[in-house]
Amino acid sequence: MKHSYLLLFTILQFTVFAQYCTSVGPTSTVDSNVESVVLTGVIGTINYTGCPGVIGLHDLSQSVNVSLNAGATYTISIKFGTCNGNYAGVGQAWIDFDQNGIFDPNESLGTWAGTPPALTQNWTFTVPANAVNGQSRLRVMHREAGSLPLNPCGTFTWGSVTDFGITLTNGLDCSGYPGDEQNDAIIVTTLPYTDTRSTEICYSNHNYVYPSPDIYYYFEPNPLLAEVNVSLCGSNFDTFLSVIDMNGTVIAYNDDDPECAPQSSLSFDATDLGPLYIVVEGWGAFSGDYTLQINASYVGLDAHEQSLFNAYPNPSFGDLNLTPNAGTFQFLDLQGNVIQTLNTDKQSFYNFDFLDAGVYFLKELETGRIQKWQKL
Predict the structure, then answer these.
(1) Considering the chain, what percentage of its residues have pLDDT values greater than 70?
(2) pTM of the model
(3) What is d(CA 131, CA 72) in angstroms, rounded to the nearest whole number?
(4) Do 136 and 49 sit in the same domain of this protein?
(5) Residue 212's closest CA among 274, 281, 146, 273?
């Protein structure tokens, strides 16, 4: 077992969104500090002067912005200096090109080690061709007495951390990739449900459990559902799967399914549950291709109960015959909506040519028994 389920459960209960780490940087305003940052983009220029020092993160991402084109090359000039005494330290800068909310090692623009006064560092970098269009960040960090590579989420005593706004253009358009946030969740329409995607492109981290990209699915159980089964078995990376309600309360979660580890699957009782989010993500920082499968069992649906009344042909192109004088039935869709009430004391033959192909249900009102019927 790679981690404590109890800890993860506690974390999941109280978190919904996650983005850039902001509880970072120095606890003191004296000594080591970035003295200047200059970056000219296709639109706009960052021309920053440091000092006096700022405790924690100096967040200028909303007020200082420059636009960069994917595939283009730029030079950033940074002077790692001091606001007081001269002490040895290290520096580093990153741009979050894939907008996953993490300053990854491969997004580093350059590193510096030395003692102020030092020469201005001029680092030339190329924006990846597959950089994700939109608003991102540049982070510049200077840490006294630190070592390389720096942790972009680190805290320390002396130094500075400053964020600037970066608008990435001419890169990857992620507007056609729903599910990155709860308010844009992928809607699960009918069961069984299957969806195949990759978390490696256009998806970022909005769930505190792991720093990996995650994808949200919106699912509304209906009154006919008993148990819902969700599976990521067959994915090509180490997955983590969770189900939360609208308040962020955990309904179910799984890391390694015994049958398909390190992939995940889970089941939960859908009785009396309201709308839910099913969250797909990787264990740790893993990401990759996955296939999500959702199936369910239904209340009162078993072989014995099905034999007590007859609905035929099944499947059918629209014609439906019921056992004469068998009672009154509700004809329902997968969401539990009543399409029509059927009284077999008066009529035993019905036609549903007007319905879309799919799975429907017949519910006997007197007993509550349910039978599945398929329209071809």
Answers:
(1) 92
(2) 0.62
(3) 11
(4) yes
(5) 281
